[in-house]
Write a structure and sequence with these properties.
two-stranded antiparallel ribbon; 171 residues; 7 strands; five-stranded mixed β-barrel; rod-shaped; alpha+beta
């Protein structure tokens, strides 16, 4: 049996390639596919009568080339969506936020779309708890806010656009 493997090194390489293809079908990450191509290259060298060290060298070199050159390009094309498609983070710009605690340029918490976020203000602004704000941008797990502009009403009707006022409790 061992002699057969020595004479037919293509068989283990083919088995490795098929096993990697099965793993690729499970993960769908293009990692195991690139390794399977390396094993297929080693299979080809083995079928051509190449020495075992050459089979390993060609298999490794092919797998590394596939991982480094082909996989990044393939992933870029596979994960490419329409140009106007926004990610969840991109769509947050302009959304309304509600201050849960005092928000400054250094600290704060806000609720955006039902989720609690670490929040910071842009510039030397202070947003008090209960005030509304608008999301300017998102960086990691931090939303950067600016106070929302609201119309102040008095007995005579709308006055001017003034600073944000706290929401009444329960609103």
């Amino acid at each position: 049996m061992i002699e057969w493997f020595g004479d037919n090194l293509w068989a283990p390489w083919l088995a490795i390639a098929l096993g990697l293809l099965v793993l690729e079908a499970i993960t769908l990450d293009l990692l195991f596919l690139m390794l399977a191509v390396g094993a297929a290259a080693a299979t080809t060298v083995a079928l051509a009568g190449g020495e075992p060290w050459l089979q390993v060298l060609v298999g490794c070199a092919t797998a590394l080339l596939m991982l480094g050159a082909v996989r990044p390009i393939a992933l870029k094309h596979l994960k490419k969506g329409p140009a106007n498609q926004l990610t969840n983070i991109d769509r947050m710009a302009g959304m309304e936020a509600h201050a849960l605690e005092v928000i400054t340029g250094d600290a704060g918490l806000a609720e955006v779309d039902g989720d609690t976020w670490t929040a910071r203000t842009i510039g030397d602004v202070r947003i008090e708890p209960g005030m509304d704000a608008v999301v300017e941008s998102v960086d990691g797990a931090i939303v950067y806010l600016r106070p929302a502009r609201q119309i102040k009403w008095d007995e005579a009707g709308p006055d001017t656009i003034g600073p944000n006022t706290p929401r009444p409790e329960g609103a």
